Amino acid sequence: MRKRVVITYPLPPERLGALANLCDLDVLEGSQPLLQSLSSEQLASCNGLICLLTDSIDRALVDNMPNLQFVSSVSVGVDHIDVEAMTARNIPVGHTPGVLVDATADTAFALLLAAARRVAEGDRYIREGNWGRKTRWSPDFFLGKDVSGGTLGIIGLGAIGQAVARRAAGFGMSVLGWTPSGRKVPGVDSVSLEELLLRSDFVSVHLALAKETRNLLDAAKIATMKPGAVLVNTARGGIVDESALVAALNSGHLYAAGLDVFEREPIAMDDPLLRHPRVVAVPHIGSATTLTRAKMVDLAIGNAAAVLQGQPMPHCVNPGVYTTQ
Ligand code: DGY
């Protein structure tokens, strides 16, 4: 019998062709949470799931999916999936590593520059009609923070962290790095997290969100950051305590923040982060380039196709499922 694969978003039909030959596709459209609103029959007959990072794939959901054979996410991060629950049922979980490294590193650097040199604030200033009416060019007009020659601390030295380090070298920055695995990277001075926070003019976060990294940058850690530092986060909102970040910005301890990710997405319009002029906020667009997103979709479809053809998933976050079967 042909397998039934549910896709939680209308991915481009031209990318789905090969998959459609291998299974019946059930493409969901509408507002979230799509999966949670499926009937028990629809859930029970689902053999595979291709999802986005906005879908919550938790134990309660998959307990109602007795025939589920794989989950393939169009994302590198899998914090929206209860991987432990999937592993317990020998369900491989696929993700999309590698292809979004440069796009995300570019976004981190764009946010770093925008926050340091007040790009978004300057744009608002002009559009609100203030330039010329209130002030004109002067030696102390709209001063920002020097990037070139500064010290960048990178938290997490995986592929994206390393790509950010390469960009920093081009700006003549000294680069410090800390990663939980203790990995050493050429051109990056490995230090403890404490030393990184103490010495860095800019701190950029590049870790996956997990139990160990949730709230890693809490109030106590933020308090130890170098006065006047800029924090950039393109990883996951849950790694940074947002109330502590707001407090540190409001007190002037931190200079600015560049944020692509938030504890709750979409961020609420009345969130205090959005009231601070030195917060540059973008809506989780780290990997949002046409080419990158096409590659992510292709990897996710490739992961699903492999399982449907009886092969191991090429990009599996819990490969142990293949050795325990
Ligand atoms: C991911 O794939 O996890 C990224 O956050 C998408 O930008």
Q: How would you sum up this structure, described in words?
A:
With 325 residues, this protein is an alpha/beta fold. The protein has helices spanning 13-20, 40-44, 59-63, 83-88, 101-116, 119-127, 159-170, 193-199, 219-223, 242-250, 290-308, 320-323, and strands spanning 4-7, 24-27, 48-51, 70-73, 93-94, 151-155, 174-178, 189-190, 202-205, 229-233, 254-259, 279-281. The strands form two sheets. Strands 8-7-6-9-10-11-12 form a seven-stranded parallel sheet, with helices on both faces. Strand 9, helix 9 (219-223) and strand 10 (229-233) form a beta-alpha-beta unit. Helix 5 (101-116) packs across helix 7. It is elongated. It starts with a strand and ends with a helix. It binds (2R)-2,3-dihydroxypropanoic acid. (2R)-2,3-dihydroxypropanoic acid binds next to loops. (2R)-2,3-dihydroxypropanoic acid (DGY) binds next to loops.
Key structural traits:
binds (2R)-2,3-dihydroxypropanoic acid; Rossmann fold; alpha/beta; 12 strands; 15% strand; five-stranded parallel beta sheet; 325 residues
Name given to the CATH architecture of the largest domain: 3-Layer(aba) Sandwich
**Class from secondary-structure proportions:** alpha/beta
Q: What is the residue-mean pLDDT, rounded to a whole number?
A: 97
Number of helices: 12
What's the arrangement of strands in the largest beta sheet? 8-7-6-9-10-11-12
**Rg over CA atoms:** 22 Å
Low-confidence region ranges: none
Global morphology = elongated
| Approximate helicity band | 25-40%
Which molecules are bound in this entry? (2R)-2,3-dihydroxypropanoic acid
CATH superfamily of the largest domain: NAD(P)-binding Rossmann-like Domain
User: What does the main sheet amount to?
Assistant: 7 strands, parallel
Distance from N terminus to C terminus (CA atoms, Å) equals 22 Å
Give the number of DSSP strands. 12
Task: Classify the fold: give the CATH topology of the largest domain.
Answer: Rossmann fold
* Residues in β-strands, percent: 5-15%
CATH class of the largest domain: Alpha Beta
